[in-house]
Amino acid sequence: MAVYTHLAAEDLAELIAAYDVGQLVSAKGIAEGVSNSNWLIETTGSNGSGTRFILTMYERRIETNDLPFFLGLLDHLADHDCPVPRTIHDRGGAAYRMLDGKAVALIEFLPGVSIDHPTPAQARSVGRALAQIHLAARDFDQSRYQTLGLAAWDDLIDKCGADNLAKIDPQLPDMAFDELSWLAGEWPGGLPHGVSHCDLFPDNVLMLDDKVSGLIDFYFAANDIFAYDLAVTHAAWAFDASGQEFRPDISAALIAGYEDVRPMSAIEHECLPILARGACMRFIASRSEDWLTTPDDALVKRKDPMDFARRLAFYRDQGAQAFQTEAG
Known about the structure:
This protein is α+β, with helices and mostly antiparallel strands. The protein is 42% helix and 15% strand. The protein has helices spanning 9-16, 67-79, 120-136, 150-160, 162-168, 172-186, 226-237, 248-261, 266-293, 306-318; strands spanning 24-29, 36-43, 52-58, 87-88, 97-99, 102-108, 193-196, 205-208, 211-215, 222-225. The strands form 3 sheets. Strands 1, 2, 3, 4, 5 and 6 form a 6-stranded antiparallel β-sheet that branches. A hairpin with an 8-residue loop joins β2 (36-43) and β3. It is globular and about 55 Å long. The relative contact order is 0.14. The model has no long low-confidence stretch (mean pLDDT 92).
């Protein structure tokens, strides 16, 4: 989440008036993330709809044609008792509206906090919640092609260029190009797949004590390999933010929680190290582009791609040992 576009108070008030949520009381920009503009909205409330919401303006990487999938998925998962926010539809029943040529959506606000240093119990709860959405989305009547797969990583890195990548870190160009070449020959096929979150970082999970109260930010969701989605989550949760410290207790708890709900096959377990290296490459590629292209005046925190370069080095060295399932 971030704020790229600044909206005047009267524009926000007019927009909120299109929904049956009462009158606008306050709007506060949210700085985290890199892709959209977001505000925490407070209203007077109406018709049992609550008084706090998240307003999102879609800025980067997200096509308006994909919004029926993203927003419909939220409603589908919420209907299946998954801890996800519902879309607030306007008075005409629309899930999103257009404002100054950009799509905007109002989303239910869920209680909870994002955590920086998870406990094993919290990690196990996250694993369970991830598996729950994989199973719940099986009868979702829409699908979305994965636009941030291996070919896209290669394209992003190529667009950044070796010279610009070297400005981030001198070792990054060789690391990125070598890894992309290796992944092209090793990426597995034929694994169980379906609608996946593909971006389940700690800041996209809300916790109340040890329980997941909300999974948010589904705007990278797509049909993909379930074990890849778990590998993305593993890379995001089982390390400190810089990627320098691996936490085996969190790793084991996350995988155990996932398999509490959806046990994996032997081949899925065998492929996790490859999938995790791909997960790292995905974020090296997208973060490198963001690092090089984010406007200096944007209310957004750029994220260092080298945090995932360090994770990648760990997965290269440790392989299957990074995915021990004996709970700690």
